[in-house]
Amino acid sequence: MNGEPDIAVPARALGDPARGRMVTALLGGRAIPAGDLARAASVSASTASEHLRVLLAAGIVVVDQRGRNRLFRLANSDVSIAIEALQAIAPRTEVRSLRQHHVSEELRSARTCYDHLAGDLGLRIADLLLASGVVTELRIGEPSSPPEPFPDGPIAAAFRIQPQQGRRPWARGCLDWTGRRAHTAGQVGAQILGALESQGWVTRRADSRAIRLTDLGAARLLELESLVTNLSQ
């Protein structure tokens, strides 16, 4: 019989600035080689290997072997939700350059959080889902089931939302450090990110987890927000 969770284990694993920078880099949902994580953490390759061993042992990250390459990624969506929540209570680092300022503003505007959207864009979409009844509630860390009947209105159609498949929660609130409230995780969050990318509404930055809203996406999102506002009046 197991007792209560021992939060000291992940806390110790994350309790180093370099390891913190590594897991933050992995929040974008990509699998990243150790060399790139070393650069993100500003440490040597040998030091990065030691840090990655700690994160692996704690179950924070897992490694994929692809030929001769070893790529690291966050273990699961629960880890990403926990890290995003820690960012909401963590002190802000000092911005020391114009580039850091631009990166910070881009991440605040829109970013990936594992396989879903976060930042101001993620919060705008969460508001649309709630206002239109596509999602009935978004509680931090708690799963939400699809409403009955299943939503088939313009918001669900625009974001190509599908019924629940498998055991993963259909929707779940993930604490956003930007707005300190919930954006949409779970299957719905992943479906929306995929739909926006496939329709050309957003593009990813190659060098960070920032997301850029395209002109098409900005126009379509304003249309949907106007539609929901008119329907609620």
UniProtKB/TrEMBL annotation:
Pfam family, one: HTH_20
Gene Ontology MF: a single term: cadmium ion sensor activity
InterPro entries registered for this protein in UniProt: ArsR-like_HTH, HTH_ArsR_DNA-bd_dom, HTH_Metal-responsive_Reg, WH-like_DNA-bd_sf, WH_DNA-bd_sf
BP GO annotations: response to cadmium ion; response to lead ion
SMART domains assigned to the protein according to its UniProt record, in alphabetical order: HTH_ARSR
Domain named HTH arsR-type: residues: 1-94
SUPFAM superfamilies for this protein: Winged helix' DNA-binding domain
Alphabetized PROSITE patterns for the sequence: HTH_ARSR_2 (PS50987)
Protein name: Transcriptional regulator
